[in-house]
Amino acid sequence: MNIIKRPAARRARAALVTTVAAGAGLAALLGTGGVAQARTAGHPHPVNGWVTIDTCTGVSGKITYSPGLRKTRLKNQSAVLTGTTSGCNDIFSGPMSGTGTLTAVLSGNASLASENFSGTFTINWPAGTGFNPSNGNLTITESGGLETVSGSVTSGFDTGTALSFQYVITGKKGSGSALHPVTAQTYTNTQSLALARNEG
């Protein structure tokens, strides 16, 4: 019975958070004459109703490529991103002790100068939470050395939320030449991994 009621309870509490935030914004507007705007990680523009449900402040790991990235020549690539998540927090139950994992299976046209991947992902939350894995679809695009990840959870824990985070490359295996393409990179995040829901 508790399992059946929990998603509804999460939605109700998220709606309450949204209502409280909206009320605080209105109070600020009336009290100062300014414009109150809510911003959520991964949603840089002012939005009404977006509530961040779960976050992880740390995400780092490795990406492998086949056949491997060239310096500027775009080629079809298959890639697998794996990582460890840490500093995770749930809006309802609070901090999650321990670490979790992130895995993404990707494909797309890419070089060291430009990346455009899409695929599927799975987030395994820290074991002590009891949360089911979050599964979904994502895209990864690169601009000026910054990798932007966006997607959505389609099944499991937090179904219906939007995924977002950013990372930079910290190391690589290979030079990017025809003989020695980059077959692996390490990365670390520059923006927290966030799952957010639009509660209207």
How is the secondary structure organized here?
Layout lengths: L1 H31 L17 E20 L5 E16 L3 E2 L4 E11 L4 E10 L9 E10 L2 E11 L5 E12 L8 E17 L2
Antiparallel strand pairs: 1-2, 1-9, 2-3, 2-4, 4-5, 5-6, 6-7, 7-8, 8-9
Q: How does the helix and strand content classify structurally?
A: alpha+beta
Give the C-alpha Rg.
19 Å
DSSP E strands, number? 9
- What is the overall pLDDT average? 82
Shape: elongated
Total helical segments:
1
Number of domains: 1
Q: What is the annotated CATH architecture? A: Beta Barrel
CATH third-tier fold name: AOC barrel-like
CATH class equals Mainly Beta
What portion of residues is helical?
A: 10-25%
Termini Cα gap: 28 Å
Residues in β-strands, percent: over 45%
| Helix/strand order, N-terminal first | HEEEEEEEEE
Spans where pLDDT lies below 50 across 5 or more residues: 1-9, 11-46
For the largest beta-sheet, the strand count, sense and barrel status come to: 8 strands, antiparallel, barrel
Spatial order of strands in the largest sheet? 1-2-4-5-6-7-8-9
